[in-house]
């Protein structure tokens, strides 16, 4: 019954999750389609824990948002294959009904498929044994059952395939110390890493436990080929504890950059223009608590150290520095303008020869930053 009650009402967190996934689907599809049109002539969206389609208040969940996006685009209508699954029969039937009621659903060349199966080794084996068309794979289990490195890798192995995982952090945090679910945890982290993590967690406080768990998941995903891993944190209503994490796994930096911009816009708090990559309801209630750090100033110091003595374009600075950090492209432009204004760097062409937008000085991708030698 847990999955049914989950859909009783649409929380702000679940709406943010659905928005992030549907926006990424749209951006991912538009990048992939030109190449896919020359290869398989298909792209796919797969959701194995799809739910009933609508919350009790009528709000659309992720599957319906994705299908609506596809219906709106001519090329996507011709190429998109969608596969949805939910182990709960009531949920899968409800989802099918919601899909059938979507306006112009018949315009899709490939009719959406809805299944009612448990996610386990049989489904994983099917993905492993078949070469997949470019696929965006969304994994949103109610807890952790069915979520495994093997499942993720079974899709991520093929060209153009990305994966987004949404998981209940509290359940995994507790599960790591519960011998009854050891098999599930080992499937998620890998047995050796899971054992190392269990030992490490015994001496950590709650915040450090979270960092250690997300770091361990990230490393496990990278080791199996997901070169770029980007997490987004969801806090509970009081803002005191993490409830869920949404993680993108992709083999290409372009997908990483796209998702970074999307997650930045959905962050509930911005510090000096730098997104937190977190949805925290409390950040709106208690803004003072979230204005204590100066992340943009920290970026300036990092760049002065890393690029000391070099002349390098804005685009190259961004490409060489941003992976693994929460800064987005606009943050790099802003701090370079600030450093130039403070006389800490020079630029070519200089500020006097560059254009302004609405009175604000710009730092285009082609502008070179001249960093002084480290003192």
Write structural notes for this entry:
- The chain has 375 residues and is an alpha/beta fold.
- It has two domains: 2-284, Rossmann fold (3-Layer(aba) Sandwich), CATH 3.40.50; 295-370, Arc Repressor Mutant, subunit A (Orthogonal Bundle).
- Helices cover 46% and strands 17% of the residues.
- The protein contains 16 helices and 15 strands.
- The chain has helices at 2-6, 12-36, 62-72, 74-79, 89-100, 121-129, 149-156, 169-175, 182-189, 191-201, 206-223, 253-266, 282-285, 295-306, 314-321, 329-341, and strands at 43-47, 80-85, 113-115, 135-139, 162-168, 228-235, 242-250, 270-271, 274-275, 278-279, 311-313, 346-348, 356-357, 360-361, 368-370.
- The strands form four sheets. An eight-stranded mixed beta sheet has the order 3-2-1-4-5-7-6-10, with helices on both faces.
- Strand 2, helix 5 (89-100) and strand 3 form a beta-alpha-beta unit.
- Helix 2 (12-36) packs parallel to helix 3 and helix 9 packs across helix 10 (191-201).
């Amino acid at each position: 019954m847990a999955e049914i009650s989950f859909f009783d009402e649409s929380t702000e967190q679940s709406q943010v999750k659905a928005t992030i996934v549907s926006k990424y689907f749209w951006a991912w599809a538009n990048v992939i389609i030109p190449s896919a049109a020359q290869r398989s002539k298909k792209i796919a969206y797969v959701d194995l824990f799809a739910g009933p389609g609508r919350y009790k208040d009528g709000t659309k969940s992720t599957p319906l948002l994705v299908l609506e996006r596809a219906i709106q685009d001519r090329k996507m209508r011709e190429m998109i294959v969608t596969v949805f699954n939910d182990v709960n029969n009531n949920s899968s039937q409800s989802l099918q009904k919601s899909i059938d009621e979507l306006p112009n659903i018949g315009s899709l060349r490939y009719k959406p498929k809805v299944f009612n199966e448990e996610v386990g080794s049989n489904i994983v084996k099917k993905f492993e044994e078949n070469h997949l068309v470019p696929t965006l794979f969304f994994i949103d289990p109610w807890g952790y059952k069915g979520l495994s490195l093997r499942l993720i890798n079974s899709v991520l192995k093929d060209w153009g395939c990305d994966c987004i995982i949404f998981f209940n952090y509290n359940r995994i945090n507790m599960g790591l110390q519960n011998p009854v679910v050891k098999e599930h945890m080992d499937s998620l982290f890998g047995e050796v890493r899971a054992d190392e993590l269990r030992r490490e967690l015994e001496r950590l406080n709650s915040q450090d436990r979270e960092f250690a768990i997300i770091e361990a998941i990230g490393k496990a995903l990278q080791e199996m080929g997901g070169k770029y891993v980007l997490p987004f944190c969801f806090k509970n209503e009081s803002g005191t504890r993490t409830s869920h994490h949404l993680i993108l796994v992709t083999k290409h930096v372009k997908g990483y950059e796209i998702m970074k911009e999307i997650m930045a816009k959905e962050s509930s708090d911005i510090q000096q223009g730098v997104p937190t990559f977190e949805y925290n309801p409390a950040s709106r209630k208690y803004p003072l608590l979230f204005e204590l750090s100066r992340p943009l100033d920290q970026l300036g110091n990092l760049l002065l150290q890393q690029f000391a003595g070099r002349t390098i374009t804005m685009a190259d600075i961004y490409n060489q520095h941003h992976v693994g950090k929460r800064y987005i492209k606009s943050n790099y432009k802003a701090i370079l303008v600030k450093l130039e204004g403070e006389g800490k760097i020079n630029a070519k062409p200089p500020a006097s020869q560059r254009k302004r937008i609405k009175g604000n000085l710009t730092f285009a991708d082609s502008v070179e930053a001249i960093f002084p030698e480290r003192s």
